[in-house]
């Protein structure tokens, strides 16, 4: 079997898909994307195609090494995301060729389903509380929300109070036993992170995500000493070498690699195994599309330290298209009692609606994240 072509599809709301075709008629799908840089990643996929055309797609580990080690410069979001989507598609082909799901090829499942959480949001505490109640009514046992608007290095206590009011409203609405993740989103610098984490201690949070940017790993042990909540990060890290520093520094309780950014199924499996050796939990990052989620779930099926899965159904980014629009069988992602079943179909376990993908690719997108500014006019972290 030989690879004959790689085709990318920019589809709304902000996603990039890749299809790898072979001379034996089998095709595999992956999702290589950096949100806001989809065109750049598509160009990287096109460049990597030069290494892959004519190769056997079933030699996944060798092709991964070829894409990573075949270039003098490596790592970073663009290259690793391009490799990630291609890697997902290669695993999809390998599973389809053998008529088994990817998780069987990775050693077989350690679980049949995994807990999922729902994103919630709102401009006022009452709106956020209602979103939490609605999520619980749909069966979710955990939710995640952004903690705050833009914050200066040192900011005012009225912003701190707004965070506390929002979290209190959610806790009052759903009670103490619903998992509540709070995402600082890299918007908070260390001085304000110390203030917020101390004030948030009573709320029994499931985790605090990206209390500071991963650029500031040296601050994590100091922040971890302030809060009883587990600390999570990793969506902006791209390889086992990035995560090596996280685990060696300490203070992180949950890693959140994204299998569409961190080198795909091949690399993320290795990252998860590294974390398990440090007794660190795994909560894969996935605010993306159905192919990415399918790849995530194949990993959740085999990684013992995975405990919860992010998913994007109904997330605020998905205005023009949502998670289920691009798959032929929507039931594969049916959520039941706050869990989703690990897909058991061949390959990634989903069937992509190719006609609809081609139709929406004609529309495409140029999604960019919002640009925020502080009151003084300087650019704020989003």
From TrEMBL:
<feature type="domain" description="Mandelate racemase/muconate lactonizing enzyme C-terminal">
    <location>
        <begin position="125"/>
        <end position="230"/>
    </location>
</feature>
<dbReference type="InterPro" id="IPR018110">
    <property type="entry name" value="Mandel_Rmase/mucon_lact_enz_CS"/>
</dbReference>
<dbReference type="InterPro" id="IPR013342">
    <property type="entry name" value="Mandelate_racemase_C"/>
</dbReference>
<dbReference type="GO" id="GO:0008869">
    <property type="term" value="F:galactonate dehydratase activity"/>
</dbReference>
<dbReference type="InterPro" id="IPR023592">
    <property type="entry name" value="Galactonate_deHydtase"/>
</dbReference>
<dbReference type="InterPro" id="IPR036849">
    <property type="entry name" value="Enolase-like_C_sf"/>
</dbReference>
<dbReference type="InterPro" id="IPR029017">
    <property type="entry name" value="Enolase-like_N"/>
</dbReference>
<keyword id="KW-0460">Magnesium</keyword>
<keyword id="KW-0479">Metal-binding</keyword>
<dbReference type="InterPro" id="IPR029065">
    <property type="entry name" value="Enolase_C-like"/>
</dbReference>
<dbReference type="InterPro" id="IPR013341">
    <property type="entry name" value="Mandelate_racemase_N_dom"/>
</dbReference>
<keyword id="KW-0456">Lyase</keyword>
<dbReference type="InterPro" id="IPR034593">
    <property type="entry name" value="DgoD-like"/>
</dbReference>
<dbReference type="Pfam" id="PF02746">
    <property type="entry name" value="MR_MLE_N"/>
</dbReference>
<protein>
    <submittedName>
        <fullName>Galactonate dehydratase</fullName>
        <ecNumber>4.2.1.6</ecNumber>
    </submittedName>
</protein>
<dbReference type="Pfam" id="PF13378">
    <property type="entry name" value="MR_MLE_C"/>
</dbReference>
């Amino acid at each position: 079997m030989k690879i004959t072509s790689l085709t990318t599809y920019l589809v709304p709301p902000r996603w990039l898909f890749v299809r790898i075709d072979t001379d034996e008629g089998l095709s595999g799908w992956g999702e290589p994307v950096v949100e806001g840089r989809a065109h750049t990643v598509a160009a990287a996929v096109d460049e990597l195609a030069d290494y892959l055309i004519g190769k056997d797609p079933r030699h996944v580990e060798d092709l991964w090494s070829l894409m990573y080690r075949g270039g003098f410069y490596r790592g970073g979001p663009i290259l690793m995301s391009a490799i990630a989507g291609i890697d997902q598609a290669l695993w999809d082909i390998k599973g389809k060729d053998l008529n088994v799901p990817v998780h069987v090829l990775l050693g077989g499942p350690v679980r049949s389903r995994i807990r999922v959480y729902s994103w919630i949001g709102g401009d006022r505490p009452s709106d956020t509380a209602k979103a939490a109640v609605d999520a619980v009514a749909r069966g979710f046992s955990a939710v995640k929300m952004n903690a705050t608007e833009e914050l200066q290095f040192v900011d005012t206590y009225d912003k701190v109070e707004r965070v506390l009011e929002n979290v209190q409203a959610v806790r009052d609405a759903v009670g103490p036993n619903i998992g509540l993740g709070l995402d600082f989103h890299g918007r908070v610098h260390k001085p304000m992170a110390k203030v917020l984490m101390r004030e948030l201690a009573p709320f029994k949070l499931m985790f605090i995500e990206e209390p500071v940017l991963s650029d500031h790993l040296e601050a994590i042990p100091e922040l971890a000493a302030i809060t009883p909540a587990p600390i999570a990060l990793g969506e902006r890290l791209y390889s086992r070498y990035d995560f090596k520093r996280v685990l060696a520094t300490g203070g992180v309780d949950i890693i959140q690699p994204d299998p569409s950014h961190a080198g795909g199924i091949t690399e993320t499996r290795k990252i998860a195994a590294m974390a398990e050796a440090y007794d660190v939990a795994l909560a894969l990052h996935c605010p993306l599309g159905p192919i990415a989620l399918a790849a995530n779930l194949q990993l959740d099926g085999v990684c013992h330290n995975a405990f919860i899965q992010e998913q994007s159904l109904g997330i605020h980014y998905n205005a023009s298209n949502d998670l289920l629009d691009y798959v032929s069988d929507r039931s594969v992602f049916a959520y039941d009692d706050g869990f989703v079943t690990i897909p058991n179909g061949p390959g990634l376990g989903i069937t992509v609606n190719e006609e609809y993908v081609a139709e929406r690719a004609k529309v495409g997108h140029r999604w960019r994240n919002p640009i925020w500014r502080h009151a003084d006019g300087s650019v704020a972290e989003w």
